[in-house]
Design a protein that fits this description.
With 308 residues, the chain is an alpha+beta fold. It has two domains: 2-153, no CATH class; 156-307, no CATH class. The protein is built from six helices and 17 strands. Strands 1, 2, 3, 4, 5, 6, 7, 8 and 9 form a nine-stranded mixed β-sheet that branches. A three-stranded antiparallel β-sheet has the order 10-12-13. Strands 11-15-14 form a three-stranded mixed β-sheet. It is globular and about 55 Å long.
Length: 308
Amino acid sequence: MKTKTFRAAMEIKADGQPGEFRAVFSTLNVIDKDGDVTLPRAFKDGAPVRISYWGHRWQDLPVGRGVIHADDKQAWVDGQFFMDTQAGKETYQTVKNLGDLQEWSYGYEILQSSQGQFEDQDVRFLKELEVPEVSPVMLGAGIDTHTESIKGVKAALPSHSTDTTDAAWDGPAMDARCPSERAALRATHAWVNPDGDPEVKSSYKFIHHMVAGDGTPGAANVRGCSTGIGVLNGGRGGTTIPDADRQGVWNHLARHLRDADMTPPDLKSVDDHGQDRGAGRGASDTPRNPTPSMVASQLDLLRIEVQK
């Protein structure tokens, strides 16, 4: 039995039964850290699967069960932790508390594979796999997977590195171009509400990626990222996402800015009355010595208002 492990950000289902979750455990048509490319249709859609105790501890009792699903871009498990067992409850609580630090792994047997070239690299193509179990783990080697949902928590989408651009930014136009498909929506936004339909745009906030005319997600727009941080800090009326998710959204947007060799604006804290104040700066909404990046963020907000 072999295993593959992936980084997974955590959301928790607010509908359904306690302990229900959705975890994306494989991203398809990318080279993973083992040098493999898992192809679409490698996983049997609708196959039942065990949820193993933390770290593939197969000698222990399973902590849940699920069903595997897949499309052309990723494979995921819709599962249920056993909330009537101590191991199931402990695993659920740990996964819930870890949030976007969570990683997942799956055990597999190769039924069909081949060697070949992909993006000018020698790789092994995994064409058909049998997956007897999926497990939460500590560390792993996968590419861009995430826990889609687990009952009880709303969370920011995981940070990722992409190409960046400083082109003119028009968020509503990018939103209009973005197709109502989960993969595209997740690729272009920084927050999703698990209470909503994952295939509906209204479930997502903080779009910050360019979208081509044919709906293909593109580079992260640094103006869109700076504007998003401005909204987190109270610009344009602020945001309605849970306070606990603001840091995760900031992490997501700030990573793109750092990828562009920019210094992201600081994230302001929110007091018990919901009034923004500079973290570590006292009660004032505006720092006495704003950084150039913070000024740029506010200018981006002004440009948006002027363009309307």
